[in-house]
Amino acid sequence: MNYFVRSRGDETSDALCQRIRNYLTEFGLTESEEEPEIVISVGGDGTLLHAFHGYLHRLEETSFVGIHTGHLGFYADWKPEEVERLVIHIAKTPFQVVEYPLLEVVVRHLDAEEPDRYLALNECTVKTMEGSLVSNIEIKGEIFETFRGDGLCISTPSGSTAYNKALGGAILHPSLESMQVAEMASINNRIYRTIGSPLVLPQHHTCLLKPLNNVEMQLTVDHYSMVDRNIQSIQCRVAEEKIRFARFRPFPFWQRVKESFIGD
Ligand code: NAP
Ligand code: MN
């Protein structure tokens, strides 16, 4: 079996990566950055986000596992002390796989035929470089509201504990094939009105943002950030693709939520 180890790049993570390589080589596994069946990310949740975006073209053939060298993560949920146990599992047993939903983002431009398509593991955010974002929001093809405010965050269930949570969004269990739309500081008064609460949409429901002012926009997809103009629409929905996590032991999601945000 081929594996790849990806480090956050700090000394601790690099050293741990080297130890993992040594163990797995002893067990007869081959390191392949191009065609790994398992990608071991060492660092934080951010490191796993980077690793995920490196294998978008082979999500069906790749499983991910994360070790944290800082605080406990949601994707990086193995402790450095457990690494021996983890490598033995990887080398000796066929592993179980758990799939989590992803978000598909399709950006159409006024001046281009071909849309841009992105996949997010955490979320997509839309803001403007200057002034408020003014955008119609269509849900399943029907206009729902006109949003005015700082921006919008559309997250996956596993991304719901990240930026979405800071915006007052709900934490969603990753077994729910859904996406969540959360507002960033919407303007609400006698003239402007938005729903004000986060919305959770099921599979096959699209959320289409149609900006009403042609200003420069800042789009983020996970840790990527881009400035874009002439945007006609931004379409979000639950992606057909999924991310696969290699599971070697139970560590229930709600326990990770508790340990991350409340403590032991
Ligand atoms: P970063 O600025 O280093 O990350 C921000 C924090 O979010 C880090 O503590 C990171 O954990 C944590 N995180 C990432 N994914 C998470 C998840 N699914 N659940 C809970 N926490 C998570 O940038 P980054 O490491 O490249 O991560 C990019 C992410 O930062 C974005 O996808 C967005 O969700 C998040 N973000 C949050 C805010 C906010 O809360 N106000 C603002 C901008 C971006 P690690 O330290 O383990 O990497
Ligand atoms: Mn980070």
Secondary structure elements and pairings:
Elements: E1 2-7, H1 11-26, E2 30-31, E3 38-43, H2 45-53, E4 63-68, E5 76-78, H3 83-92, E6 96-109, E7 116-120, E8 123-128, E9 133-139, E10 142-155, H4 163-166, E11 178-186, E12 199-202, E13 207-211, E14 217-221, E15 224-228, E16 231-247, H5 253-261
Parallel strand pairs: 1-2, 1-3, 3-4, 4-5
Antiparallel strand pairs: 6-7, 6-16, 8-10, 8-14, 9-10, 9-13, 10-11, 11-12, 13-16, 14-15
* Ligands: NADP nicotinamide-adenine-dinucleotide phosphate, manganese (II) ion
| Averaged pLDDT | 97
CATH fold type of the largest domain: Tumour Suppressor Smad4
The residue fraction in helices comes out at: 10-25%
Q: What is the N-to-C succession of helices and strands?
A: EHEEHEEHEEEEEHEEEEEEH
What does this entry look like structurally?
With 264 residues, the protein is an alpha+beta fold. The protein folds into two domains: 108 residues, Probable inorganic polyphosphate/atp-NAD kinase, domain 1 (Rossmann fold, 3-Layer(aba) Sandwich), CATH 3.40.50; 140 residues, Probable inorganic polyphosphate/atp-NAD kinase, domain 2 (Tumour Suppressor Smad4, Sandwich). The chain contains five helices and 16 strands. The strands form two sheets. Strands 6, 7, 8, 9, 10, 11, 12, 13, 14, 15 and 16 form an eleven-stranded antiparallel sheet that branches. It is elongated and about 65 Å long. The model has no long low-confidence stretch (mean pLDDT 97). The chain binds NADP nicotinamide-adenine-dinucleotide phosphate (NAP) and manganese (II) ion. NADP nicotinamide-adenine-dinucleotide phosphate binds next to α2 and α4.
